[in-house]
């Protein structure tokens, strides 16, 4: 099963500069484990092991443009040809 994963600039050091990589897995969690096997260190930036392996607070993950937090989180099922986008949350500005 081929899943396209779009990588934000801040994480491209793990993918040798690639903007998008291919991954495999039946769920988002499986996909992240597959990415870790291919791009060592990336999973730690996505998953908070101190929070039962959930997504890090400031990482947004979209499956075909739907936020996985509103689906089944890292247990969200994937299908061949899906597209996953990883985006860091952006905050800031003046009060």
From TrEMBL:
Transmembrane segments: none
InterPro entries, alphabetized: Beta-grasp_dom_sf, Mopterin_synth/thiamin_S_b, Sulfur_Carrier/Prot_Modifier, ThiS/MoaD-like
Gene3D superfamilies given in the database record: 3.10.20.30
SUPFAM superfamilies reported in the protein's UniProt record: MoaD/ThiS
A family per Pfam: ThiS
Name recorded for this polypeptide: MoaD/ThiS family protein
Organism annotation: Streptomyces albidochromogenes
